[in-house]
């Protein structure tokens, strides 16, 4: 336990607190002292009473603000959770689209590599085709003569 000397409304007070909480206690005492000194007239007890009432009023106002803010916080948390959920779904959808695109590109590469490219006719084939064309023309001429 630590011993702390406080000065509130011009009067010294010896107070015990847990080790390590001395600074916090001194800070709280300074707040109480400021409130008590702000009250003019009356006895020391009256100053401390009104300081306590004003601090209780401040605490109640702060609690009211917190209570008002909690529903807004809850709806904001829900909105954030929904946005995170949608982000995760969009990320999953994007990953799936990337996988499908990669698969399609691989299929295209395979198709290109296995496709038979039209080969240029070879000169021997050209000669044979010309000979066949000549025979067809000769036959056509004979057919015309017979008819």
Automatic annotation (TrEMBL):
Pfam families per UniProt: ZapA
Superkingdom of this protein's organism: Bacteria
GO biological process terms, semicolon-separated: cell division
InterPro entries from the UniProt entry: Cell_div_ZapA-like, Cell_div_ZapA-like_sf, Cell_div_ZapA_N
Keywords in alphabetical order: Cell cycle, Cell division
Keyword flag Cell cycle: yes
Keyword check for Cell division: yes
Regions that span the bilayer: none
Protein name: Cell division protein ZapA
Organism for this UniProt entry: Sphingopyxis bauzanensis
């Amino acid at each position: 336990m630590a011993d702390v000397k406080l000065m509130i409304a011009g009067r010294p007070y010896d107070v015990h607190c847990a080790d390590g909480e001395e600074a916090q206690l001194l800070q709280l005492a300074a707040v109480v002292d400021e409130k008590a000194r702000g009250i003019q007239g009356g006895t020391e007890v009256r100053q401390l009473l009104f300081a306590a009432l004003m601090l209780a009023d401040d605490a109640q106002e702060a609690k009211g603000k917190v209570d008002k803010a909690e529903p807004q916080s809850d709806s904001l948390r829900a909105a954030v959770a929904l946005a995170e959920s949608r982000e995760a779904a969009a990320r999953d959808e994007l990953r799936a689209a990337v996988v499908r695109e990669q698969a399609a590109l691989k299929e295209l590469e395979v198709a290109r590599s296995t496709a038979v490219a039209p080969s240029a006719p070879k000169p021997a084939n050209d000669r044979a085709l010309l000979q066949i064309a000549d025979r067809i023309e000769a036959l056509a001429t004979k057919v015309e003569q017979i008819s």
